């Protein structure tokens, strides 16, 4: 089939290549002319035969909104837009309604796989009406990993991005657990080879995972992570997961704590810890360190 792909960055560029390897035609558009197959969105749409499928892989928020707005003016009834970026699930119903007025279909798709997806395939979680999913299915099949699993019609519009959001929330908590265990091992005077302990966990243990494999890769490159600063950004989906938990009255203590740990990583001299140190000094005479 033919696919229009908007956004050819780290994810989009590799996705274009994987879809092409599966025998499909992909015409990509990117603001970088060195990687683009079309001069503009209008040129991209003009190069595709109807009914068209346009997959959008641009940053969430304003960039996605402006792209979908422009496509809404260029596409025709029966065409389908897929948002494969990390949009918030609440935006999906809005986009579906805006395009639906023009009889243009909409599918939201959470995509996981990162820079490894070209060779390993991408886990896909998509939401929308069955008739629109059917039009995109050959692309889903091309992108997913080999085997039975890795691709799911998660539900109504918004379900794909909601599922990907929860996936990323779980990822936050898993990474935090590995990081805390690593720090404790590094702090223990009796432990002499933390990297090899992590490596030993890769086979036969209940905590083995791809994240553990990646942790070992990182330790192989920099055994004590001395080349890195202890700062970790949050992409937004961790926050959205916690907000959704509040809305649904679902307790998420581990995921919530892992999000707050990201915030504390940005503080060189934590104001909260200043107050805790002051209080400990006041009630117990505990020593404090002066700045």
UniProtKB/TrEMBL annotation:
Domain of life of the native organism:
Bacteria
Keyword annotations for this protein, in alphabetical order, are: Gluconate utilization, Oxidoreductase
Q: Tell me, which GO biological process terms does this entry list?
A: D-gluconate metabolic process; pentose-phosphate shunt
Q: Does the keyword Oxidoreductase apply?
A: yes
Alphabetized GO MF terms: NADP binding; phosphogluconate dehydrogenase (decarboxylating) activity
Catalytic residues?
164
UniProt keyword Oxidoreductase present: yes
| InterPro entries registered for this protein in UniProt | 6-PGluconate_DH-like_C_sf, 6DGDH_YqeC, 6PGD_dom2, 6PGDH_C, 6PGDH_NADP-bd, 6PGdom_BS, HIBADH-related, NAD(P)-bd_dom_sf
| SUPFAM superfamilies recorded | 6-phosphogluconate dehydrogenase C-terminal domain-like (SSF48179), NAD(P)-binding Rossmann-fold domains (SSF51735)
Ranges for the 6-phosphogluconate dehydrogenase C-terminal domain?
160-291
The UniProt entry's sequence similarity note says: Belongs to the HIBADH-related family.
PANTHER family, per database record: 6-PHOSPHOGLUCONATE DEHYDROGENASE
The protein in question is named: 6-phosphogluconate dehydrogenase (Decarboxylating)
The organism named in the record is Streptomyces tsukubensis
